[in-house]
Amino acid sequence: MFPNDFEYVAPTTISAAVAVLQANPDAKVLAGGHSLLPAMKLHLANPSMLVDIGKIPELKGIHVNGGVRIGAYTTYRELEMSQELVRRLPILADCAGNVGDPQVRNWGTIGGSVAHADPAADMPAVVLALDATMKAIGPNGERTIAVDDFFVEMLQSALAPDELLTEITIPPMPARMGSAYEKFKHPASGYAIVGVAVMVHLDADGKVSDCRIAVTGAGPKAQRARAAEDLIKGGSDVDSAAQKAGDGLEYLSDMSASEEYRAQLTRVLTRRALHKAMDQAR
Amino acid sequence: MTTAEAPGKMVGKAIKRREDPRLITGQGNYLDDIKLPGMLYAAIVRSPYGHARIKSINADAAKAHPGVVAVITGADIAKEQNPLPCAWAAGGVPNNVNTPRALAVDVVRYVGEGVALVVAEDRYVAHDALDLVEVDYEPLDVVVDAEAATKAGKVQLHENAPNNIVMHWTCGDEQPTAQAIEQAEVVVKQRILNQRLIPTPMETRGYISRYDSATGEYTIWMSSQGPHVMRLLLTAFVLGIPENKMRCIAPDVGGGFGAKIFVYPEMASTLYAAKIVGQPVKWVETRRESCAVTSHGRDHITDLEIAGTKDGKITGLRVHTYANLGAYCSTIAPGVATTLYGRMVAGVYKIPNVFVEVDGVYTNTGMVDAYRGAGRPEAAYVIERALDMFAQKLGMDPAEVRRRNFIQPHEFPYDTGIGMLPYDSGNYEPALDKALKMAGYANFAQEQAAARKQGRLLGMGICSYVEVCGVAPSKWIGLAGQGWGAGLWESANVKVHLTGKVVVTTGSMPHGQGHETSFAQLVSDELGVPYEDVIVEYGDTQGTPFGYGTYGSRSAAVGGTAIFKSVSKIKEKARKLAAHMLEAAEEDIIFENGKASVRGTPDSSKTIQDIALQAHVAYDLPPGMEPYLDETTYYDPPNCTFPFGTHVCLVEIDADTGKVTPLRYIAVDDVGKVINPLIVDGQLHGGIAQGMAQALYEAAVYDDDGQLLTGSLMDYAIPRADMLPHYELDRTETPSPVNPMGVKGAGEAGTIAAAATVSNAVVNALQHLGIQHLDMPYTAEKVWRAIHERNGGNGHVS
Questions:
Q1: Quick one: pLDDT at residue B797?
Q2: Average pLDDT over residues A154-169
Q3: Strand ranges for B654-716 from DSSP E
Q4: Closest by Cβ to B709, choosing from A242, A243, A255
Q5: Could you tell me the pLDDT band of residue B413, with boundaries at 50, 70 and 90?
């Protein structure tokens, strides 16, 4: 409950934050702090410096215009309450509204969640299903990272230690798009034992033209359920496709759930999410 | 709140707790709110091993750390202090009692056991310095399972406890029970586990110790359920100093659930530290420490056999339990696993032959002691699961089987024949009927069948429980009886000041029960003074009569009766004084509704306030009468009380995921006369939540190395409000003949019934699959596996 000593800085520009990170390899970025601070209190993380990015105005905000741009320091609460998101991309608002408790949602941010790459966090599955693009700024300037390349390993994203995630972009949403996130919560932590995010596009005939299914909680990082995606895109019915959702995934097996049970939840939640998303798209 | 009520009407009123405005607006005074001048902070180096020899401790770097005042080891303290006492060795059997010391000496026996105490100028420095204390451990073999620990070849935790057995205890009759089971028409056998729980009070433990070198007196502020008992145990047993050299103060206490009854190592180590450093020392437990080192509850492995006739009469019950007591005996642990458990396994039924064996066992785990219900939830779980399994085997309605075996109302006081005191009063069938009616039980089987056809799994479970509370007659519970090392009476002092205001000092120790409110209601009625004129004090050993504290749902039945009797003494004295003031004969004075009047001439009267004034100023007292209205009672109850009731739960199980959702929870409880229905409902709500939590969510899990895998609230599932249903409560009222108010007790009833109720509901939902029993907690994966395996295990989403 008592973190080790650390320094705290709160730069007001992205470039200043990057400069501090570059100069202090041991530093960690502090966004909402709802993963990092508990880890520090348990001495699981012992950074020598925290770089608070909460004072950088351009990291905040939700911009809906065809696609959606979300500043990395946008809180779950802001996502949950955004009427534009509720209308245009309800999966984000839904998912955000189911993270933790009100205190967590008031502080926790979408950027913090995806950059932390917790294997059981909700947002990684949602941005993966939505085919997002991550914008990062480092000492060498700006680059974009496709979400499929973003989640590298357990608790490890593609960001370099001196890079700052600044924005998450969701591509333009066509007509007849549906998306849904289904989560099976751990009764203690509220994290996803398994969470499945689904996005489907239907063509004018009501046939599936695109489908992405992303699974969190099951394995060390958010993963695509490609076998089920292919079946759906190939015209398979939802129940048959969902039956294959767990195929080819990496699994964790621990006190919360065995591999076998995580595979079962993946199938069940995929089925439920697919039905919701298809209904929404129609 | 209603304040203008006429006297004589407070008992039975659902008034809001007078404690709450202060507690819910942050104006309470909890342990960590207290800051003394010059106060230092302690943190504790704890064993990372389940079992290890301490080869050396090097505290040089920690001592040199800026802000560190002292580093204290077990060897330092052992020169001045004894190990902590065990106050309740189970009665009538040899006990191999081993208790912890303030800090471990030579060997640590569970993860979290204290090894060194760092005292520093602030809390952060103290915690920083923990990493600087170098402890060299030699790991030893570990055993965490109670049954395994008793087997040959296992590591021995204590030299004086062969096969790690603390005690082997029995009750009931072995041979007749064996015979009854052998000859029975129907027998059901089952192993059932009652998993280990972590009590998790909202406020963790904490202590502030201070030593006055001028007087040689200690003061210790403690988050505790019994400061008087702590003073007794700490002075007489641990420190070896006179009781009058210590003052114990319990401020507002944020929950305990039993875990704050006990004497703990940190009390002793901070007392030592305060003396060594010459400044007050505060220690407040972190949540992780609370999970690991505050006593746990339950942890029974039980083999049961229930036998009976084909028409549903129970003829025998045989129970063997391994009770995991952890690495040492906590303060009352052996008594919880025996008297409070074994002697209650017959429940609400007439069972002619019962035999219970309990092996208390040491393992490399945290200590297990009383936790809300303390033995009775374990007993209710055994008999109520057994009864359902028996009914299932017979193909009979479990409600009907209960009816056929209930102890009948005319049979009270009823002796179950297994060494419990006779049940005081009871009327079990009306509570069952009411609960079944509320639940719509008559139609449930049809609904269940219809739901099954749609692929929905519904289950309804019943538990008819009885518990023992209002502990306890000292002669029965004491050394010659059940082995408790002291009395279990309670004290109360009542003073009426000259202004007519009343101060009640109780030896009980509320930590969430609302005594300030319900005791004031009681006194308001009995003495006939306004409710607002009564205040209730507790929690400080200085200048107050010894009291045994709050646990075992004893405060109303025992503490309340002590107050009632003190008020009676005051009324008696007031009557005498009134007779003198009214120049009437004493036998002509009636005291009613706060007024002493002359029989037949109601106009000729004196109020209690008039009398209190005269008693205080003492200008004109009858010859020989002492001034003041000030009476003390030490009340030793003639019997315990035995609340009962029937709970019903409706669950739905999602066959695809195994998730159990409790849809309805109905509780009909009989806690005797009710002083404050709102408080009783609140106690039931909390109690039911804890029992349901055991059934559905909570389990303390150790791995084979003795590491606590559920060491934080990220892993140990305490339910949130949305994980529990709305409760539908009702009552029957069967007064207890044991005390003048007719109260029985309500603090633990909910917990005692709820785990068994939910268990029966879950198994009921699954019994068509051939499932006779599943162990708690009913985690989604466990339930899914049970369904999945019986569905052929093809992994298909149903």
A1: 38
A2: 97
A3: 660-670
A4: A255
A5: very high
By Cβ distance, the residue of B287, B288, B657 closest to A184 is: B657
Residue B95 confidence class, pLDDT cut points 50, 70, 90 = confident
Measure in Å the smallest separation between the Cα of A67 and chain B Cα atoms.
Answer: 35
pLDDT tens, position by position, B617-672: 999 999 999 999 999 999 999 999 999 999 999 999 999 999 999 999 999 999 99
Write the DSSP symbol of residue B618: -
Q: Radius of gyration of chain A from Cα atoms?
A: 19
Distance separating alpha carbons of residues B505 and B545, to the nearest angstrom: 8
- Distance (Å, whole) CA B722 – CA B697: 13
Q: Is A188's CB within 8 Å of B713's CB?
A: yes
Cβ-count burial A60-71 (b if 16+ within 10 Å, e if not): bebebeebbbbb
B723: contact with A, CB 8 A cutoff: yes
Burial profile B557-570: b = 16 or more Cβ within 10 angstroms, e = fewer = bbbbbbbbbbbbeb
Nearest residue to B211 (alpha-carbon basis) of B200, B222, B219, B221: B219
Pairs across A and B, CB distance < 8 A: 63
- By the CB < 8 Å criterion, does A42 face chain B? yes
3-state secondary structure of B405: helix
- Asked if B714 lies within 8 A of A268 by C-beta distance, the reply is no
Cβ <8 Å between B657 and A5: no
Determine, for residues A268 and B657 on separate chains, whether the beta-carbon distance falls below 8 Å.
yes
Q: Give all strands of the β-sheet with B165-172 in edge-to-edge order.
A: B165-172, B354-362, B314-326, B297-308, B186-197
Pairwise CA distance, residues A20 & A12, whole Å: 11
Share of residues in chain B with pLDDT > 70 (%): 98
Pair B776, B195: CB distance under 8 Å: yes
Q: Are strands A27-30 and A49-52 parallel, antiparallel or unpaired?
A: parallel
Query: What number of other Cβ atoms are within 10 A of residue B620's Cβ?
Result: 9
| A255 has a chain B CB within 8 A of its CB | yes
Residue B255 has pLDDT above 50, yes or no: yes
Count of alpha carbons within 13 angstroms of residue B41, beta-carbon side:
17
Q: Does residue A158 sit at the B interface (CB-CB below 8 Å)?
A: no
The H or E element that residue B63 is part of is: helix B60-64
What is the least distance, in Å, from the CA of B128 to any CA of chain A? 7
Q: What are phi and psi of B745, to 5 degrees?
A: 130, 145
CA distance B700 to B296: 8
Interface test with A, best of B46, B197, B715, B720 (most A CBs within 10 A): B715
Pull the structure tokens for residue B152. Answer: 């040959």
Residue of B nearest to A271 (CA): B797
Residue B778: closest C-alpha in chain A: A187
pLDDT tops 60 at residue B348: yes
Average pLDDT score, chain B: 96
Of B123, B719, B780, Cβ closest to residue A2: B123
Look at residue B148 and give its three-state secondary structure.
helix
Tell which residue, A59, A238, A76, A244, has the closest CA to residue A165. Answer: A59
pLDDT of residue B483: 93
Distant-in-sequence, close-in-space partners of B449: CB < 8 Å, separation ≥ 6: none
Q: Does A6 touch chain B (CB under 8 A)?
A: no
State phi, psi for B33 to the nearest 5 degrees: -80, -15
Taking CB atoms and an 8 Å cutoff, what residues of chain B touch A258? 781
ipTM for the assembly: 0.96
Distance CA B267, CA B75 (A): 17
CA distance B75 to B79: 7
Q: Half-sphere exposure of residue B487, counting CA atoms within 13 Å on the CB side? A: 13
Closest by CA to B547, choosing from B507, B488, B487, is B507
